[in-house]
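seq/struct pair 1
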Amino acid sequence: MADKVIVAGVSVDTRHWIGGRRVASAETFTDTSPIDGSTLGEIARGGPAEAEAAVAAAKAAFPAWAATSPAERARVLHAVADGVEKRLEELAIVETTDNGALLRSHRRGVMPRVAHNFRFFADWLLRLEHEDFETRGHTNHVSWDPAGPSVLITPWNAPLMLATWKVAPALAAGNTVVLKPAEWSPLTASLLADIAAEAGLPAGVLNVVQGYGSEIGDALTSHPDVRRISFTGSVPTARRIAGSAAARLTPLSLELGGKSPLLVFADADLDLAVDLAVEQYDNAGQVCLAATRILVEESVAEEFTRRFVEKASALVQGDPREETTDIGPTIHPRQLEKIDGFVRRAIAAGARAVIGGHRRDLQYYAPTLLTDVAQDSEIVQEEVFGPVLTLQTFGTEEEAVRLADDTRFGLAATVATGDHERAERVTARLVAGTVWVNCFFVRDLRAPFGGSRHSGVGREGGTWSFDFYCDVKNTVTAPNGWKNHG
């Protein structure tokens, strides 16, 4: 196996990164580009042995990293951010080639956000509250103690950004990390390992292991030396991880699927509402937060649909490296089959495709809007994770909220309305970790992020991240208990 591959002119190491060095595996898996199906390279395929080595490296590196001062940890994380910014163009083109998301988005938004993730948590570390308080003359002192080696398992739809949402706070907290990237988009995680090493992150503090699902995942999530597990992905995989962690009571943070609603009321700015709806096709619909269930008040449904079709039909689908492209490919043939299966079954059950409803060449699926769908149907209740939206109508505010909350998920919701009081009433009743009103995907790292119901366990962001990655300790000291030993 070649140790490196060249992707769009960028050299990427295909081996694991364990204990500050590159480690090969006896077996490999093939990484392909969703843009044209071409083979990018053979990637080291880890298993229990690599998992054991990575956790051992993280365990060995933990005492020194945990004892490193917050100021020094913050300095190193800022150096990692500098490295990301220095190699921003390389990271952008490699990730676009590997997962098919728009190059312009990677250049202008995603990769700058990767750098920001490191800077934000470095700075937040330095202003964590350590305020003492009194109880009947006794002093309470709260401290944020690093928890230990942490396993982070990340998805393929925004590989580096979602990985660094976890890696940055875990490292800032003083933990060591074993990062397992998704097998369909592993390349930028390898580049991150190089960047971190160049920034001076000590050996073993960040380890990156590649492999297929449970082959390596079970060994990582059931390991007795792992102190935290954070996972972003599907509900079935989360159940498996939770089962592995349960035996050792390893704390979990889970950000899972969504089936989020977009509620459009008659008093909304209809052009804004249409823009919000069409925006749900971002990243070919492969966004966990996407409001895939559009709920429109009956009196404006016809006009909304007309404007939506006009705007959505103008979207350009094609090569994500082109500046004019709006929608790229689906990540993998298996995902394309899954999307197509959902749509075919929905149409067979009576749904109507207002636009789309079919594949295009290679791994491209046409942006689709389905109407005439029942609330209890599969297409309304289950996450598709592709460019497929449904449209339903409602007559009253009460009905809108009922339909919006009627799934097993609760990750996010979006509300379009011109009535401030209505917005307050509706958002108070929506079951969701994040609610956007007349906007979408505005994400501040100071805010909590996560899901309700089957959309997840726990929250990420700001102090919530440190609360997870730390063992929060309270030390109570009695007054006048000291002896003067001279």
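seq/struct pair 2
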Amino acid sequence: MMRRFLLGLTLAAGLPLAARALPPVPPAPPVTLTPDRPAAPAASTAAKPDARLERGRYLAIAADCMACHTAAGGKPYAGGYAIDSPLGTIYATNITPSKQGGIGHYTEADFARALREGVRADGSHLYPAMPYTSYAQLTDADVGDLYYYFMQAVQPVDEPARQTALPFPFNVRLSMLGWNTLFLDNKRFVPDPGKSAQINRGAYLAEGLAHCSACHTPRNALMAEIGSQTLAGAALGSWHAPNITSDKISGIGAWTDAELTAYLKTGHVQGKGQAAGGMAEAIQNSLQFLRDDDVAAIVAWLRTVPPVRAPGQSKPAFSHGSAASEEVALRGMAGATERHSLHSGAVLFSGYCASCHSASGAGSTGQSYPALFNNTATGGSTPANLVSAILFGVERKIEGEEHEAFMPRFDQRSYVQPLTDEQIASIANYVLKQYGNPDVSVTPAYVAQARSGGEKPLLARVQPFMLPGGIVGIVLLIALFVWLRQRRQGKE
């Protein structure tokens, strides 16, 4: 789900990464580059049920269902994962085939309606944190295979997931009927006859199953994606999902095919960027397990996304900075028994960052700890991903790699050393000036906002006034009705 409000090419947007079980690498289904694969004949399905099951398993991985529907330490697909949306915490539902706690009573038609229209079997509406606006593009055959997989291969868990309880008026799920009328395009994917089969396959994967736009497209005042800014980058809580259009300055146009492929499979490309937050989850749970031909299809499709240039940007984010060290100048500045000596960004960086990223910012040998220059997190036009990485850390595990990508968090939950807003701002400003985009700066207030989940959208900011405002509006309408009635009676 992307959380699915969760393809980033920096310390990508999202929430702090929770440890969770990785799905097994599925056996590769038959290579297919066209998205509109017809449904298998009934006789073939009966004769080869495992082939259909593996197709469904692969689709579930491509759609990243595990990331949202499995809580940290919980059972697969049993729900309970907390999605911290701007409007409140949304808890993912149990989608195991349990008839008590999950979707075991769903027919395939019920499943399809929930997946593509956001309407549950009981008629209640889902919130678009479940990216049904993207899943609406899925073919009937793929929806059928997904249903078959969840009903036949997923272990049922009878405990219902924790219920979502958003504040008024967002708790009125019927309001989603109006939102869907305005913003849900409930149409299946139609291949573009002017594009290759590979590009069409990439479009189907990225726009539908992987729901890339759910994170990387800015949203309007009602939290719907802005179509004219597709994949142009968007704030996502304290993180920032970057521009992944084909623009060579603001987007991924200057990345090579090999770099894009490596990023989608590993979350790291030296001299460009590395994944954290929601993007790390997408790679850890989903993208690394895609077949090579499907990753190549996504890369081919990304090349066709219309470029969107950020106003005022003149050079790529990864082009900023170089190695530099102030370590020698810091030696002997503080006495052995001096207290409160961590009084500058340079000193804080030396104490908390240099041991992994090196005193020169060049990172470790092999780049398990990446360089801080030529890095999209430090060279971007926003400090969001740099600050969020310091606050919430980085975790990313790739199958076959000896070491897990890891950076400890330094917020109030840190087991290393909690840092204050002032300290994190000092470190961030030192890194930006020394290795990144010197035109960007960080204030303690910005860090405090990131610590609390990032800037709230307008809809969330006005929520506390909606109930009293609605009451006042009703009272005024009643008063107007009474006044008009009395006036009419007076004339009679």
